[in-house]
Amino acid sequence: MKFLICILVIAFFSISCRTEKNLEKKFPQIWKLVGKSSYGLGGDSGFQAISDSSYFYVFKKDGTFLKTVGNETTSGTFQLEDLIHGTNTKGTSYTLTFLDDLLRYSCYPNLEHLHLNMDNLLVGGSDPCDGITLYFSNEK
Predict the structure, then answer these.
(1) Domain count of the chain?
(2) Residues 6 or more apart in contact with residue 110 via CB below 8 angstroms
(3) Per the domain annotation, does 18 fall within a domain?
(4) Taking CA atoms, which of 75, 80, 85, 124 is between 20 and 30 Å from 57?
(5) Residue 114 domain-assigned (yes or no)
(6) What integer pLDDT is reported at residue 130 of this predicted model?
(7) Higher pLDDT residue, 18 or 65?
(8) Which pLDDT belongs to residue 101?
(9) Cβ distance 57 to 66 under 8 Å?
(10) By residue range, what is the domain housing residue 80?
(11) Higher-confidence residue: 25 or 100?
(12) Structure confidence by residue, pLDDT tens digits, 2-58
């Protein structure tokens, strides 16, 4: 009986620890454009830093977001999804649904797909349809 209780306690703590990792996503999150790259007929442009951007996302705890580019702002909802890449490499995907399709920068109507890369930059843009890849840094 003691053995069974020990197993149950260990299982409880291992599940609790797993849940805490998912709760590390703190809100609000503010992501500011810090760079871009493109790949096309001219080859790979590589990462080009941007230091004076007024392009950013604000993700709120209630599942809504604001996107601002210059003096224009739009909004919508988002969903987070944990991803597993290869062996033991985890990531997070953000799927944004726009209420009005303004300021959307992707290949898909009313949607943007962003993901965290290995450098903890939020990556998105219209690269799947031969556009520019955008990189955003978390402003803490």
Answers:
(1) 1
(2) 76, 97, 98, 101, 104
(3) no
(4) 85
(5) yes
(6) 74
(7) 65
(8) 83
(9) yes
(10) 27-138
(11) 100
(12) 444 444 434 444 443 343 344 347 899 999 999 999 876 666 778 899 998 999 999
State the pTM of this model.
0.75
Residue tagged 């965290």 (tokens): 116
Q: Considering the domain boundaries, does residue 60 fall inside one?
A: yes
Q: What is the DSSP secondary structure assignment for residue 16, as one 8-state letter? A: H
Return the beta strands (E) in 1-140 as ranges. Answer: 29-40, 43-44, 48-49, 55-59, 64-69, 72-85, 89-98, 111-116, 122-125, 132-138
39-45 long-range contacts (CB < 8 A, ≥24 apart) are 39/127, 39/130, 39/133, 40/130
- Residue 100: which residues within 8 A CB-CB, separation 6 or more? 74
CA angle 94-97-99, nearest 5°?
Answer: 150
**CATH number assigned to the domain comprising residue 115:** 2.40.128
Tokens read off for 18: 């797993």
Q: Is residue 96 part of a domain?
A: yes
Q: What's the CA gap between 78 and 40, in Å, rounded?
A: 30
